[in-house]
Design brief:
heterotrimer, A mainly alpha (85), B alpha/beta (353), C alpha/beta (396), A: 85 residues, mainly alpha, Non-ribosomal Peptide Synthetase Peptidyl Carrier Protein, Chain A, 0% strand, globular, B: 353 residues, alpha/beta, Peroxisomal Thiolase, Chain A, domain 1, 2 domains, ten-stranded mixed beta sheet, 11 helices, 10 strands, 32% helix
């Protein structure tokens, strides 16, 4: 799980063009949206595509993104429980 | 309706963003596709906001912020932009990725930014400005339309001050594609020798120029925009000349009242004779300046012309690099800016101290 | 005295019909133009769209010009609807005092997206390079109709063509023009279909504006144009008046690039300022032709803005998007034409595809077509990306 979280950090920084943010700046349990990293609804859509492209997981309803992308940990947990083995 | 020029901001292939300098250093480009020099955008925009902005958005928002700061205004009474092509790179990116990904798994960011009003919208969000916000997209009339709207807003008393900008970006692909229409010179040309090349085509450029225009004069004004005219390709040079004379008469002026002609010479042998004709027939011996060797040619390059004209008014001298004629003006009260985009869209702007 | 501004001609082409009478018939009979994709070359057959039911060749016939290369669907749609509007007005388009203000969001993209890689690779020039930009369709319309005066193009996303009406009205009021042909045109493209799909706001069942279970918009295509004339000009040529333009405003939500603010700040300001143009009382409004796209976000914030402005005296409301789909750059003017129709015919156009009340709102849209509906003053809304919100008031 920790390895996946570290991998996700790099992928998110790249996908969302977080120029000034280093992987160690993002904590696994901090909220990604709102007061945390400050991501918004467009970032959520970018993350949905990231999940599909990198992990083969399709999210049909963007409303589900809120829970899944709450933090790096929730995201990693969702990936490990939904990834086709 | 006079519009008083309160503040200006301009990003271009020259270091023009610092309003306290005026072409002390001139950048020479040895390519036919000139990109803007960029300041450190983080001085103007927070990094978290910057990450969502592609190049033209950064350029546009930054020059808008510079002009507002210059005018000492937090929120303008209206935001009006003109752009011939909008965010070209984002449009290309989304177009390419739709094809490359066979319409699957696409992210929306480039699509959102490809919307033509995206820069005007970014300015509104940045300033939390709820005012009127229009974007014009009509080729060589894009900036002029925005300027006309800005003047109309002032005349309607709909706003005390308006933020008006003209902006376009170039890209590698944009340069290649518009090159197919013979827009650009075939041979690599030194931008500072643009007019001596005597070949068809111009050199491509880009820029974002913003102006804060106000209804009421103030002590710190750069000058005023007296009038603006735009017209489609005239059927003959005589018609063009009479249109210019009518424009001057409409402002109770004649050719002798103009102290400096600032024209859109693009180095294209096909179109430069139009400017030469105006100079010889209407304004013989008049001091003459040009700017497209510094800005490059693009749909909203007339906004660059207005910026250079405004700076000349303010400084009361024409830097050597802008001079076309050998005669220099003395006191500069009235400047006529005449531009055409490939003889399709023509415009006249009259500015005065 | 500033000039009053009158509508003297209207023209339309949408998925609901190729001219104004056909669209009126669809409105009356509850016929939706939404269906399976037929003409657009896309893999997304599962997404319903509202295409104009004619291929490009047929559009050349409707535009009255022989088939030839160099004309985009966007330009053809615009030429057809603008031509109808000018004919309807019976006005002479020539002379320097007639202007054209058109609108589009993606211009010639419908061709560019097919030819882009040819543009890049081929050494030969491709005729569609020159039709890519937004000004092309405007120039084509001007040439076809013989308009030589002022012309410009506006692109402010989905509010574009309501803004072209606003500019036309202002230029006439200021005495700069006697007559303005105003409106917008947009053809469906893979670019926009995939763009909106990537935003996950396309309803797989077709749009259901103001419904509790709405799940996005349906893209359409088309064009709508109006002829506006000054009172002086109307008197001079004894023109028949369809409606008067009495109010307008554009305001910015200044909230987000794509999302509307939850409380509908920009939408509220646009409607409120439009009423202020000529000091119109809110209770004079008989009907609101809402933007009502069917997205979760828009309908909620627009609904809240309506409630905030009109309180417990909310006029009748409907969105007509379920007939035409969301025609993007043409939406504002298409719906302004619908608003003129509702005034001239005195009919109430219902909000199709509505079933369940939105729990957040206290009002429901109208669902029945009604004649003798008492519609004299209408406000029509058009909101776009970048928080660009516009409202226009028309009076019989």
């Amino acid at each position: 799980m920790e390895a996946l979280i570290e991998k996700l950090k790099k992928e998110i920084i790249e996908a969302l063009n977080l120029e000034d943010i280093e992987p160690e700046d993002i904590k696994a349990d901090d909220p990604l949206f709102g007061d945390g990293l400050g991501l918004d609804s467009i970032d959520a859509l970018e993350l949905i595509v990231l999940l599909e492209k990198s992990y083969g997981i399709k999210i049909e309803d963007p409303k589900d993104g809120k829970k899944i992308f709450y933090s790096l940990r929730t995201m990693a947990e969702y990936i490990s429980s939904h990834q086709k083995k | 309706m006079h519009a008083y020029i309160k503040g200006i901001g301009y990003l271009s292939p020259q270091p023009t963003w610092d309003n306290s300098l005026f072409l002390e250093a001139v950048k020479s480009h040895h390519v036919n596709n000139m990109y803007c020099l960029a300041p450190d955008y983080k001085q103007y925009i927070r990094p978290i906001a910057l990450r969502r902005m592609s190049r033209l958005i950064r350029m546009g928002l930054t020059s808008a912020l510079i002009s507002l700061q210059d005018a000492g205004i937090d929120k303008p009474g209206a935001i009006v932009t003109g752009t011939g092509m909008g965010c070209v790179e984002d449009t290309e990116n989304f177009l390419t990725s739709v094809a490359a990904n066979k319409e699957e798994m696409l992210t929306p960011t480039a699509f959102i930014r490809s919307t033509h009003n995206t820069v005007g919208a970014h300015i509104a969000v940045h300033l939390k400005c709820h005012a009127y916000n229009f974007t014009y997209v009509h080729r060589g009339f894009s900036f002029e339309s925005a300027l006309a709207d800005g003047r109309l807003l002032l005349a309607e008393n709909a706003a005390d001050d308006v933020l008006v900008g003209g902006l376009d970006e170039t890209s590698e692909h944009h340069y290649i594609i518009t090159g197919r229409l013979n827009y650009w010179k075939v041979k690599k040309t030194h931008n500072l020798e643009l007019l001596s090349s005597k070949t068809p085509g111009s050199i491509a450029g880009e820029g974002a120029a913003f102006f804060v225009l106000g209804k009421v004069p103030g002590v710190n004004d750069y000058g005023k925009l007296l009038d603006l005219d735009m017209f489609a390709r005239p059927e003959s040079e005589e018609i063009l000349h009479s249109r210019i004379l009518t424009f001057l008469q409409g402002n109770a002026m004649q050719a002798s009242d103009i102290d400096l002609l600032l024209m859109g010479y693009s180095g294209d042998v096909k179109f430069d004779p139009l400017y030469e004709g105006v100079s010889e027939k209407i304004f013989p011996g008049k001091p003459e300046a040009y700017f497209k060797h510094l800005s490059g040619e693009y749909h909203t390059s007339s906004a660059a012309g207005l910026w250079y004209g405004t700076r000349i008014l303010q400084m009361q001298y024409v830097p050597e690099v802008l001079m076309k004629s050998t005669t220099s003006p003395g006191k500069i009260n009235n400047i006529l800016i005449y531009n055409n985009f490939r003889n399709e869209q023509h415009s006249l702007m009259l500015i005065s101290t | 005295m500033p000039e009053r501004i009158f509508v003297t001609g209207i023209g339309l082409i949408t998925a609901a019909g190729k001219n104004v009478p056909e669209n009126e018939h669809s409105l009356r009979t509850g016929h939706s133009g939404i269906g399976e994709v037929k003409f657009l070359n896309t893999v997304h057959k599962e997404i319903p769209v509202a295409e104009v039911k004619h291929d490009d060749k047929a559009l050349f016939d409707l535009a009255g010009i022989p088939y030839r290369e160099g004309y985009t669907r966007t330009a053809l749609l615009g030429m057809i609807a603008a031509g109808e509007a000018m004919q309807n007005a019976g006005a002479d388009p020539g002379g320097p005092r007639t202007g054209l203000i058109s609108a589009t969001t993606v211009g010639g993209m419908v061709k560019s997206e097919n030819h882009y890689f040819d543009f890049l690779r081929n050494d030969e020039s491709n005729i569609y390079i020159g039709t890519h930009d937004c000004g092309d369709s405007t120039e084509k319309i001007a040439r076809r109709l013989g308009i030589h005066g002022f012309r410009s193009t506006i692109s402010t996303a989905c509010s574009s063509s309501l803004n072209s009406i606003i500019l036309g009205a202002r230029l006439i009021r200021a005495g700069k023009l006697d007559r303005a042909l105003v409106g917008g045109t947009d053809a469906l493209s893979r670019f926009t279909l995939n763009g909106f799909n990537s935003l996950m706001i396309l309803d797989r069942e077709g749009c259901k504006p103001f419904d509790k279970n709405r799940n996005g918009l349906t893209l359409g295509e088309g064009a709508g144009y109006l002829v506006l004339e000054s009172e002086t000009e109307v008197r001079k040529r004894n023109a028949m008046v369809l409606a008067e333009v009495t109010g307008w405003a554009n305001a910015n939500d200044a909230f987000h690039q794509t999302a509307s603010s939850p409380e509908g700040t920009g939408a509220f300001m646009a409607m409120e300022k439009a009423l202020e143009t000529n000091h119109i009382q809110a209770d004079a409004i008989d009907y609101i032709n809402a933007h009502g796209t069917g997205t979760i976000n828009n309908d909620l914030s627009e609904g809240r803005a309506i409630e905030k402005l009109f309180g417990d005296r909310i006029p009748r409301v409907s969105s007509t998007k379920a007939y035409t789909g969301h025609t993007l750059g043409a939406a504002g003017s298409v719906e302004a034409v619908f608003s003129v129709v509702s005034i001239v015919r005195n009919v109430l156009i219902p909000n199709m595809h509505y079933r369940d009340q939105m729990p957040e709102l206290h009002f429901a849209p109208e669902t029945e077509y009604k004649e003798e509906a008492g519609i004299r003053t209408v406000i029509t809304n058009s909101f776009g990306f970048g928080g660009n919100n516009s409202s226009l008031i028309l009076k019989g």
